[in-house]
Automatic annotation (TrEMBL):
Gene Ontology biological process: fatty acid biosynthetic process
Source species: Gigaspora rosea
Molecular-function annotations in GO: holo-[acyl-carrier-protein] synthase activity; magnesium ion binding
Pfam families (UniProt xref): ACPS (PF01648)
Sorted UniProt keywords: Fatty acid biosynthesis, Fatty acid metabolism, Lipid biosynthesis, Lipid metabolism, Magnesium, Metal-binding, Transferase
Location of the 4'-phosphopantetheinyl transferase domain: 4-121
Name of the protein described by the UniProt record: 4'-phosphopantetheinyl transferase
Length: 134
């Protein structure tokens, strides 16, 4: 059963401006949304993260997390740190660490695309919603 489908689009210059407002903006942003494993992977300097190639790679992660949140919104309220993103065989893989008591997640599907100044991500989550007793 499909539990939810989420989609997100981001305009990169808007996010880049947000992250470069103050020297602590990037640190606050990453500490709020990344799991501890993702944080270890994300040890780049502020200057290098604004490099175009690295910037695109890391913003895909944010867009996937947002799409996952939207896919599960009606079933369960999750936080950014409940979702982790890894690349497996060149494809994004979404893991939900605490899906909640009202559902069992069996599979996630994720897709990301970017063109120019935009990144779009779509996530579909399969599983079972546990029935509520009267």
């Amino acid at each position: 059963m499909i539990l939810g489908i989420g989609i997100d689009i981001i305009h990169l210059p808007r996010l880049k401006a947000l992250l470069s407002r103050t020297p602590s903006s990037l640190k606050k942003f990453t500490s709020r949304i990344l799991t501890s494993d993702e944080s270890k992977e994300f040890h780049y300097t502020f200057a290098s993260i604004l490099n175009t190639h690295l910037f695109f790679q890391k913003k895909k992660r944010w867009t996937l997390k947002e799409a996952t949140y939207k896919a599960l919104y009606l079933h369960n309220c999750i936080t950014w740190k409940d979702v982790s993103i890894k690349k497996i065989k060149g494809k994004p893989h979404v893991t939900i660490h605490t899906p909640g008591n009202n559902m069992t997640i069996s599979k996630t599907h994720a897709s990301v695309a970017h063109d120019g100044e935009y990144v779009v991500a779509q996530v579909m989550i399969e599983g079972l919603e546990k029935t509520k007793l009267p």
